[in-house]
Design brief:
- By secondary structure, the protein is an alpha/beta fold.
- The chain folds into two domains: 11-245, Alpha-Beta Barrel (TIM Barrel); 249-293, no CATH class.
- Helices cover 46% and strands 12% of the residues.
- The chain contains 13 helices and eight strands.
- The chain has helices spanning 11-21, 33-41, 51-59, 69-80, 98-111, 138-151, 166-169, 171-183, 197-206, 227-233, 243-262, 275-281, 284-293, and strands at 25-30, 47-49, 87-90, 115-119, 158-163, 188-191, 212-215, 237-240.
- An eight-stranded parallel barrel has the order 1-2-3-4-5-6-7-8, surrounded by nine helices.
- α4 (69-80) packs parallel to α5 (98-111), α5 (98-111) packs parallel to α6 and α6 (138-151) packs parallel to α8 (171-183).
- The two termini are 32 Å apart.
């Protein structure tokens, strides 16, 4: 038996296998390791590390480019270490020019994630469903994609190229950019913030043989299209980046209001996991097993070496 308290091995190979199978990969968002464990427990094949949620959780601030690459990679690593399913991670703009992108890919690979996406926004970036986005030149972004592809040391590591040009230059230009990024070597294309079902369909028609990622963001610019419809259109990855974040916010707000109003959370305890259930879920039995494995045979007898 190997004593391990971390998981996260082989994620890139598994994600590549899922992409090759043609099945739809539904990846709810996680902003921290606890959320990732819940995604895995629910039976999903992959988890998405959301930049929006990471900014909200680590800084309590909106997704407007405030987090650094190392902060994002660090959170991605903690998430990847606690689950066995592949982690797809937001890497914003790649945090600079192609040299910075090379470092970003290395950091994310070392963190144990299965793949990342970079986008063609001007830094500091904004959430893809906010107003006021700007994009860099398409050729500049293509070079960043090329740098990302050539920088990976694991050929299974998945590079996803995202374009935010729909909001700035229109759909046709966004599709032209996506084609350029595919030529640069991107494994998956992510055409962010299409605003109608017909635009989502047009993007899928433009890339019939390329894996596409669809961003299902509650309250965002893109309409709520059903999974069967997205599957029929040809989307292979669907992320739900903020579902867990919004649900956690609502649940925490409710319990805090109960404590503020009633003085204790007693009336809501039936809605909550018990203490024992929760510590079992986060791995206390495994911790105890490791403790027992390495416990001293005679903890009270002192160190007898050399005597």
């Amino acid at each position: 038996m190997t004593a391990r308290l971390t998981k996260g091995s082989g994620g890139a190979a598994r994600l590549r296998e899922l992409l090759g199978s043609g099945q739809m990969i539904v990846a709810p968002g996680a902003f921290d390791p606890l959320a990732a464990r819940l995604v895995e427990e629910a039976g999903f094949p992959a988890v998405y590390m959301t930049g929006f949620g990471t900014s909200a959780a680590l800084l309590g601030r909106p997704d407007v480019g405030l987090l650094t690459m190392t902060e994002m990679a660090d959170n991605a690593g903690r998430i990847a270490a606690c689950v066995d399913i592949p982690v797809i991670a937001d890497a914003d703009t790649g945090y600079g020019n192609p040299l910075n992108v090379i470092r970003t890919v290395g950091a994310y690979e070392a963190a144990g994630v299965a793949g990342l996406h970079i986008e063609d926004q001007v830094a500091p970036k904004k959430c893809g469903h906010m107003e006021g986005k700007q994009v860099i030149a398409a050729r500049e972004m293509a070079q960043k994609v090329r740098a990302a592809v050539e920088a990976r040391t694991n050929p299974d590591f998945v590079i996803i190229a995202r374009t935010d040009a729909r909001a700035v230059e229109g759909l046709d230009r966004a599709l032209e950019r996506a084609a350029l990024y595919r030529e640069a070597g991107a494994d998956v294309l992510f055409i962010e913030a299409v605003v109608t079902e017909e635009e989502a369909a047009a993007a899928a028609r433009a890339f019939p043989d390329v894996p596409l990622l669809f961003n299902w963001a509650e309250g965002g610019k893109t309409p709520p299209i059903s999974l069967p419809q997205l599957r029929e259109l040809g989307y292979q990855i669907v992320i739900f980046p903020i579902s867990t974040l919004l649900a956690a916010t609502a649940a925490m707000r409710a319990i805090l209001q109960e404590i503020a109003g009633a003085g204790t959370p007693a009336a809501r305890l039936s809605d909550l996991p018990s203490f024992g259930e929760f510590v079992d879920f986060i791995g206390l039995p495994q911790v105890r097993e490791v403790e027992q494995r390495y416990a001293a045979a005679d903890p009270g007898g002192g160190d007898q070496i050399g005597r």
